[in-house]
Amino acid sequence: IKQEALDLIAEAKDVAAMNDIRVKYLGKKGPIQEVMGKMRDMSVEEKKETGAAVNEVKQELAAVIESRMAELEAAEVEARLAAEKIDISLPAQARVMGGKHPLTAIVDESVAFFRSMGYEVGVGPEIETDYYNFEALNLPKNHPARDMQDTFYIDMHRLLRTHTSGVQSRTFEARSMQDLPIQILAPGKVYRRDDDDATHSHQFMQLEGIMIGRDISLAHLKATLQEFVHYMFGPEREIRLRPSYFPFTEPSMEVDVTCAKCGGSGCSICKQTGWIEILGAGMCHPNILTIAGFDPEIVSGFAFGIGVERIAMLKYGVEDIRNFYVNDMRFVTQFKDWG
Ligand code: FA5
């Protein structure tokens, strides 16, 4: 029995095999236990002799099994460690980093520019009241100019703001003569019931700029916008002010920038005019200042509303505004390193 067990032990390759051998030879149903069971019927003399022999075999086998088991266990741990070893020479897996959305990049750049000119950043709610979006901006109910911006109404008094100009009314109302000059830039989303096409979206972004103080003139407005355009598009780009109409500014104007593609000579992008419209602006209407409690004889100011998508389309050469909103990774990842 002993030799048979020792041969098997020598052959065993792993801890599991050794366990089987231990159970087979030293377990309750093993041959050693069987011999010990038979000892009951033996004479005292035989019992003594057999007992001593069986015990010796049992102890020897137990010792051999134990030491072989320890060896095999150590070998298995070693093998596991070798297999798990981290290879620090392997190249690291590159982490996929996100990037700024092009519209966020334009807003951030604009905020940096206007901050450098002394503007603070303001915000207004996207769900606006009829009062701040229209009435306080010189657009009483039934005013025909309300149709200029087709509105998503929530109920009789609340709507999704159609422009960021509500921030004008809120700002003027919250400030007084002691706060002059007031310079605010308010970026944000706006909503209109426009049909989506290559240049119109039912949800888009505007940057509202407001400056009021003493002796603020159209020259300040023009210089501010010219500087902004140079900062955004480069020093060779010119602007022109075209007369327009907004109920909250007088005079009102639309501002165009020279077309980058043709440099002003006319092409398909600028519909042969050489110019592209980017924003609406004007001098604050005396009624607006009066509604807000400022004396228009002493205080004057200007405001402008820039279309963020328009700027991004011109700057990055994007031909369809809807690209900004469909989250196609092939489109957005192009701007990853630009912001
Ligand atoms: C306004 O919204 C005025 N509140 C701007 C203003 C502010 C005038 C302060 C005077 C003083 P307008 O509707 O023209 O104006 O919109 C301003 C800009 O938003 C446009 O020049 C254009 O760039 C952009 N815009 C207008 N409608 C859309 C649209 N559906 N999709 C994308 N951009 C648009």
UniProtKB/TrEMBL annotation:
Belongs to the class-II aminoacyl-tRNA synthetase family. Phe-tRNA synthetase alpha subunit type 1 subfamily. PANTHER family: PHENYLALANINE--TRNA LIGASE, MITOCHONDRIAL, PHENYLALANYL-TRNA SYNTHETASE. PROSITE patterns: AA_TRNA_LIGASE_II. This is Phenylalanine--tRNA ligase alpha subunit. Its cofactor is Mg(2+). GO terms for biological process: phenylalanyl-tRNA aminoacylation. It comes from Culicoidibacter larvae. The keyword Metal-binding applies. Mg(2+) binds at residue 250. Binds 2 magnesium ions per tetramer. One of its GO terms (cellular component) is cytoplasm. GO terms for molecular function: ATP binding; catalytic activity, acting on a protein; magnesium ion binding; phenylalanine-tRNA ligase activity; transferase activity; tRNA binding. SUPFAM superfamilies: Class II aaRS and biotin synthetases, tRNA-binding arm. Residues 113-334 form the Aminoacyl-transfer RNA synthetases class-II family profile domain. It is found in: Cytoplasm. Its main location: cytoplasm. It catalyses: tRNA(Phe) + L-phenylalanine + ATP = L-phenylalanyl-tRNA(Phe) + AMP + diphosphate + H(+).
